[in-house]
Amino acid sequence: MARAIRFHQTGGPEVLNLETVEVGDPGPGQVRLRHRYVAVNFIDIYFRTGRYPHPLPAGLGSDAVGVVEAVGEGVDFVRPGDRVGYLLGPQGAYSDVRVMPAEVLIPLPDGVSDRSAATLMMKGLTAQYLFRQVFPLQGGETILYHAAAGGVGLVACQWARALGVTMIGTVSSEAKAEVARAHGCAHTIVTGGMTPEDLVREIPRRVREITGGKGVPVVYDSVGRDTLMASLDSLALRGTLVSNGTTSGPVVVDTTLLAVKGSIWLTRPAMVHYATPRSHMLAMADELFSHVLAGRIVGEPQQEFPLERAADAHRALESRQTTGATVLTL
Predict the structure, then answer these.
(1) Of the chain's two ends, which shows fewer C-beta atoms within 10 Å, N or C?
(2) Rounded to an integer, what distance in angstroms lies between the CA atom of residue 214 and that of residue 211?
């Protein structure tokens, strides 16, 4: 038996329930994993609220770190006792123990703690595919990154610094601006208290001021609807808008607008298309962990909640009370 967070209807954090569930032995191609830390990501809120439809009742979460307890037939690349993490697992990570596909597991190297890995699995590999694959940064660029003090944002700040990239980051408060700058963000734009009209005017103005009027070659925008126009107006001619999230609401774009704003490229990437097949995922993890082991990227949770307080973790994340990564502890 194991404890697991499940929900039987979509809605607010109150729909999350701690339940006791049966966990059997792993079948062919599977492992049984005992979690140590489970990451809380904004995508979990999308599943809970029904923005991303999912059959109910359901578990929640797809990003965790733990220890392999048992392996099923045909699994020869991990063994009982191995420390592993994952970010592409099926929903159900908010639990003590689970049976899951072995192919999504990423071995953790010595020198990377479970606690650190829990903050870096989804968030670190998101920074990797955004910066190294979606729009490959070479060093020397100036970029705009929204939500620079968030979980992915703080990793992105450090990765930009490691690459020699000048990051302009938007944050919601001066306190978060200080955190982002401490992690390597070169310039911050505090958007807290701005009206939608202010965002459209002030963000591009500051970006043009910093870049000498040129704008940036790429904007990474996880906010969505509220920052769309500001992002487009911050781009240089033939720049790229990477729409990698919609925390403020979905993005709807008339493609004519992309021409008007300077023949802009727009992409909406998904992790699964960059981290598969498994060899791609392992190569991404190798690059991430090389930075961690060299001390160029540090990941530690800024907020921790016990599993039974998963609803409180969601409330904190939704209310923008958090900075950096949030995890559930087991």
Answers:
(1) N
(2) 6
